[in-house]
Structure formats: structure tokens, C-alpha cells
Amino acid sequence: MPKVSDDHLAARRSEILDGARKCFGEFGYEGATVRRLEEATGLSRGAIFHHFKDKDGLFLALAQEDARRMAEVAATQGLVQVMRDMLAQPEQFEWLGTRLEITRRLRTDADFRTSWAERSAELTDATLGRLERQKTAGRLRDDVPNDVLADYLDLVLDGLVARIASGHGRSNLAAILDLVEESVRRQD
Fold first, then answer.
1. How far, in whole angstroms, is CA 107 from its chain's centroid?
2. Rounded to the nearest 5°, which phi and psi values hold at 27?
3. What residues contact residue 111 under an 8 Å CB cut-off, 6+ apart?
4. In sequence order, what are the residues at sequence separation of 6 or more whose Cβ sits closer than 8 angstroms to the Cβ of residue 174?
5. 52-57: long-range contacts, CB 8 A cutoff, minimum separation 24
6. What InterPro entries does the record tag this protein with (predicted)?
7. Which of 45, 72, 131, 177 suits 55 as a labelling partner, its CA being 20 to 30 A distant?
8. What is the pTM for the complete model shown?
9. DSSP code, position 33
10. Tens of pLDDT along 51-64?
11. What DSSP assignment string belongs to 109-153?
12. Beta-carbon neighbour count of residue 126 at 10 Å?
């Protein structure tokens, strides 16, 4: 039996995550049945679960990948840019569905809450690092601790996700994000 290359395994894993992201986004965690995951990925359950222990492991890997991608943007451009990307290019940044499910599961699933706490530190660290660099450069207000600013921005992100998910219009959201950015900037 020929050995499958690491590149092929990584590509297959990425393909599964992309299909699962769409499935979880459309149907939620509970509605993303194995049959729907098979349809969304175009792969059999055996192929899917060769790469992931179970559905929960698949969702955690997806959530962690999305948090990593968000952390990359947050580290270089800020958490508000993550939110702007969600508005401007929702097809490229399908974090909304994942973020909604993370929020729901944090509230209802103690085991998930524990697992997620271990995996979500990257986004928090990226946000805090960016805030520290911006504050050191004199761009951010210095009368509010960085952890409070990070919690504030995370709260805005959660509110944005809830607003979009509830079907409210997006017409004022870019202006609201301008206001959020202005509220954390240093006023000279």
C-alpha cells in the first residue's frame, strides 16, 4: 500500500475543514449530521473521521483554525479589521457560523468550554500584542488597561456576530466600527 504524503494529508484535512465550516454555518452544530458533513465535504464518513476523532473533534479543529486565521489578522491589522472583513467579504471570512456555534456551546457545554479555553488563547494573545504595540506607538488611549480594551473589542465582535446572525441590516455597521476604532484611539 503506497504511503500518502504529508502534503496530501494536509490538503485533505483542509478540504474537510472547508466543507465542515459551510455545513456548521448553515445547519449549526446539532444540524450538521454526519450525512450532511459527507455531502458538504464530498467525502465518506470514514475519510472524514480518519482525520478527526469525531464530530466534536472536527468542530474544535475548525474553531481553532478560524481563531488562528482571525489571530493573524488581529496581530497585524487589529480585531476591528477582523470585523470589517466579516462585513466586506463574508464569503472569504466564514467565521460567523463558527463564532455563533462557539458562543452557543460555551454557554451550554462544559466540556467544550474547557477545551475551547485551551485553544482560544492565540486570538486573545494576538489582540493583546497588537494593542500593546499600538499603545507603545502612541496610537491608543493609555487610560484603559489593554485587557479591558481587548474585552471591549471582543464584546463588540460578539455583538456584531449576533447582529448579523439575527438578520438585521448591515447598513450602519461599518460606521459603528469606525466609532469603535475612534473610541480606543488616543485623543490628542
1. 17
2. -110, -5
3. none
4. 84, 87
5. 52/16, 55/29, 56/112
6. DNA-bd_HTH_TetR-type_CS, Homeodomain-like_sf, HTH-type_TetR-like_transc_reg, HTH_TetR, Tet_transcr_reg_TetR-rel_C_sf
7. 72
8. 0.80
9. -
10. 999 998 999 898 88
11. -HHHHHHHHHHTHHHHHHHHHHHHHHHHTT-B-SSS-HHHHHHHH
12. 23
- Cβ burial, residue 122 (10 Å; 0-12/13-18/19+): middle
Between CA 34 and CA 51 the distance in angstroms is 14
Q: Residue 4 to residues 7, 9, 10, 153: CA-CA distances in angstroms?
A: 8, 7, 10, 43
Distance CA 12, CA 48 (A): 9
Of 182, 186, 187, 181, nearest in space to 79 by CA: 181
Query: What distance in Å separates the CA atoms of residue 153 and residue 99, rounded to the nearest whole number?
Result: 15
Strand partners, 84: none
Query: Is the CB of residue 55 less than 8 Å from the CB of residue 34?
Result: yes
- Calculate the alpha carbon distances from 35 to 11, 14, 45, 61 in Å: 21, 19, 8, 19
185 SS3 class = strand
